[in-house]
């Protein structure tokens, strides 16, 4: 079951003399909600996500998960990064079981628990393969199985598909929200890609830069699965672009690159 996340008046400076990277961030994410965080490069998206993961403590304010202040990482709020960070000398199954082993689960039981997850993420014929023999997309699937194995309440994704080919990316953009919705997990994804945000989220938060603030949001009330070529999807993309124009995110001036990225993804779907 998913947890709620409260961002309680977060301001952050990386040093006492620096300008704040994040300023007065306030929002509440409901249990089971799927949220995308978008904004210009360097606006503080990853910094905010790291705070939700307990990897960084804000200088002011706090993150609360199910009302408890987040002070350190936990298997209950798991983070997936752009690179899968797998151990090359271990098999797929051993890598997927790693979080459970760290949690003190026996090797035999951990193996059994990840078996079904590896089936679910489409790696049933790769369980004993060496992870070095897998493609980038397959490696991210191992990382996903590893993240899900500890039965987290929150899944935090930091541009997890940006290094993948468009076809694999589109597949995972459909599969990951499905998994979260089936399990009721709360998901927060950081992305540069407007199409990715619309494909995966119930709600998109838009961040500005210098300092990083949440300056807009869009509820994505489209049916699942999301189809990039559907009129509703395209209308949502237009609406999100319009919101960028209305903010000081700096993305308005970079519309071409943002739009190009969206079109690339859309044409691959
Ligand atoms: N450990 C750190 N020490 C000092 N400054 C940092 C540190 N980590 C991040 N920053 C700065 O904070 C700002 C926000 O960085 P962050 O990585 O959160 O942005 P982002 O929106 O995720 O960017 P991108 O989309 O390019 O990944 C940047 O100016 C970055 O240089």
TrEMBL record:
Q: Name one Pfam family in it.
A: ABC_tran
- Molecular function terms in GO for this entry? ATP binding; ATP hydrolysis activity
Q: Which Gene3D superfamilies match?
A: P-loop containing nucleotide triphosphate hydrolases
Q: Does the keyword Calcium apply?
A: no
Q: Which UniProt keywords apply?
A: ATP-binding, Nucleotide-binding, Transport
Q: Where is the ABC transporter domain?
A: 5-234
Superkingdom of source: Bacteria
What's the protein name? ABC transporter ATP-binding protein
| Protein source organism | Amphritea opalescens
